[in-house]
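Listing S7. Sequence submitted for prediction.
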Amino acid sequence: MTRKERLLDKLKQAHLTYGKIVIGVDFDDTIFPFSDDSLEAHQEALAVRNVLERVRPYTVQCLWTVANDWSLRYKKFICENHFNIQFDHYNESPIFTGEDVRKPHFNLLLDDCAGLGQALEVLIEFAEWAESPKED
C-alpha cells in the first residue's frame, strides 16, 4: 500500500469515526498567491479554494497561518469577502494534542511547502468517496 493510499484510508476512517475530517490550510501561496503574482500561481490558488469548497460538507476547515492580530484580521477579511471562504477556525484547531502543548492536530494540512499537490490529489479522492452512495 502506498503512502497516498494509507493517507486516503486514514481520512476515510476518521470521517466514518467522527463524521468530519479536520483540514489545516495555509494562507500565503496556498489559497492566496502571496509571493508569485503569475497567472499560474492564481490558478493554483483557485484550484485549492475549489477543492475546499467541494469538501466543505465533510470537513472542519482551519486557516493556520503565521500572523499577528492585524494580519490575521486582514487574511480573514480576504477569505470571507473576496474568496467567500468561511473557515471554522482561524489559527485555532478544534483538536490539540497533549494537555499543556499548543500543537494542533489536522487530518490533512494544505500548505505550499508541505506536499500540496499530493494532499490535493488525496483530498479529491476523499471527496469522490464521500460523495458516492454508501451501502448500509
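Caption to Listing S7: primary sequence and predicted C-alpha cells for the chain studied. The chain has one domain: 3-130. Residues 3-130 form a domain with the Rossmann fold fold (CATH 3.40.50.1000).
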